[in-house]
Amino acid sequence: MSIETSLAPSAPVAGIAPAFSPLYQQIKALVLQSLQSGEWKPGEPIPSEFELAARYKVSQGTVRKAIDELAQDNLLIRRQGKGTFVATHAEQQVQYRFLKLKPDHGDLNSQGPAERLIIDCKRTRANNDVAKALRLRGGDAVLQLRRVLSFGGVPTILEDIWLPGGPFKGLTAERLSADQGPMYALFETEFGIRMVRAQERLRAVNPSHEEAKLLKIEQNLPLLSVERLAFTYQDTPMEWRRGLYRTDTHYYDNELN
User: Fold this and answer.
1) Domain of 50: which CATH number?
2) What is the pLDDT of residue 10?
3) pTM for this one?
4) N or C: which end of the chain has fewer CB within 10 A?
């Protein structure tokens, strides 16, 4: 099973939209260029609709329509009376956007902040599968880490994560353990990398002895294996992870449009 979760349109926008596209789409592409280049960083306000209209020499209505679509894509966030801001994974409504696991009662936020335990973090060489997923060459440097996420004190998710070594130079187990916020928010602030969309593949699996031990479950308890490939701007793959989800007290919840 394959599912795509987006914080941005599924198709990359590498440059200005073609001249025959609607004008607001051309403005949307220009705003995306500014987001991609880091002109406006996560959490920061962007210029007002009036200022953008003057900058691009179009009407405010055209700018508003472009901004509306970017807000729907969760790349921008409107705040009543304050303006429009670049979305960040530190935002409460965004930080669990890629995590579709829900408790049988309530939601993840009601269980309190996720408890993160880093089991391993090491630099290694990409094998063929990792290289293919991240569009690297076999043997390129990657960062490999393993962690357990617990909710309400109960180990719930075991994750193996691979990151390209170059963009994440300096990331260590100590740095990950010291940060109590969402990992993607750390990527934004420390490394200037924002995950904007992801693809997932799901299947049911039985855990290994070691995996069951880390999750504190019986080895015969079925788990949901979720492979996620996350992309930054320009459709560049920047993270590959495999998560093993407990579903005895949680379920996978995805909204289809």
Assistant:
1) 1.10.10.10
2) 36
3) 0.77
4) C
